[in-house]
Write a structure and sequence with these properties.
Elements lengths: L3 E3 L4 H8 L5 E3 L14 H19 L5 E10 L2 E3 L5 H11 L3 E11 L7 E3 L2 E6 L4 H9 L20 E5 L2 H5 L3 H10 L24
Parallel strand pairs: 1-2, 1-3
Antiparallel strand pairs: 3-4, 3-5, 5-6, 5-7, 7-8
Length: 209
Amino acid sequence: MAPLILASASPRRKELLERLGVHFDLRPVEIAEDAGPSKDPQIVARRLARAKAEAARLDDERAPILAADTVVAFGGRIFGKPADAAEAREMLRTLRGRTHEVVSAVVVMPLGRRSVIARHPLTQVTMREYGDEEIEASIAQGYPLDKAGAYGIQDEFLRPVERYEGCYCNVIGLSLWAAIEALLKAGEEVDIESAGFLPQCATCPLAHS
């Protein structure tokens, strides 16, 4: 049986999927990550994740495919990855001290099919009141430039998040529990008992849904 394809260039998604012990091939795809007219983060993230899966299907007609996309939403705006340091600065200033939504849609395209199984959990994230100098130090390291909303919840340098409600892995870029549900529904094998979950996964609301 053909191994699962992970259609993502994100090292964080690769690391998270490896925790599930699933055998997969990494095959990043290029799509235009344009949010489009919708302001609903779940619709936007799901559409972009599906577009990645469809792009991967063009290169492989048979293998099962997993793709994901993360968006940040606040005040009627959709925040993807910043185009440059100036946009990263503006995003981090906009989000600090406020609560926003993060959606990481995960889609699985089963073996030999073009239809998808999709999950798009939402996490509420409240940022702390970090200073401008902290923003500049983070940008100088190049940390925000490949992340939706210009930050990572796991960033030990900036430590931008004060608190969150929902799935922790969802904010990193791939909800493990959502991925497990989609993979199992697609007929893929996942050994949950031996999975290397993060400590936060034990109290994740998706683990008991």
